[in-house]
Design brief:
The chain has four helices and seven strands, in the order βααβββαβαββ. By secondary structure, it is of the alpha+beta class.
Length: 153
């Protein structure tokens, strides 16, 4: 995939035709023991309380955020940005759009899980106002730990 200028990016709602690409992005962004299976992604997308937002370049999805909601709690299930498009503010923009949608729906808190070893992601989330809440031992299929992070909306 070739890199393009961030100005060519478009943010939009998920469409069913994006499904295969979202599964591909998740497998590119995370090791197998952390990546979601297509069935897990499909289940999250089928939840009427959830939503997904996509960033596309040249009519191809290059990033997405998958969000669940329960009452006043938002949950970032995953946020994936293709390696060729990282460090351009795409993740920040997707998070901002997701947080705004959650606020509009009445959510007051937002949570997510992040691999305890993923220092870059932890720093990214801290920069967006998230705080570490607790360690989730053996959270992933390979037995590795995650951190639960939270922020008020």
């Amino acid at each position: 995939m070739s890199s393009t200028d961030s100005s060519s990016l478009r943010y939009r709602e998920y469409q069913p035709s994006d499904f295969d690409r979202l599964c591909q992005l998740d497998s590119l962004c995370f090791p197998p023991e952390i990546a979601y299976s297509p069935e897990e992604i499909a289940a999250a997308l089928a939840d009427p309380a959830g939503f997904a937002l996509v960033a596309e370049s040249q009519e191809q999805a290059v990033a997405f955020v998958l969000v669940g909601t329960r009452r006043r709690l938002g949950h970032i299930i995953t946020i994936d940005v293709h390696a060729d498009f990282r460090r351009r503010g795409i993740g920040d923009q997707l998070m901002e759009l997701a947080e705004e949608r959650l606020r509009q729906r009445g959510a007051t808190r937002l949570i997510l899980e992040v691999a305890a070893s993923n220092e870059a992601a932890i720093a990214f989330y801290r920069g967006r106002g998230f705080a570490l809440r607790r360690l989730l031992p053996r959270y992933y299929r390979d037995g590795s730990d995650a951190h639960l992070m939270e922020k008020p909306l």
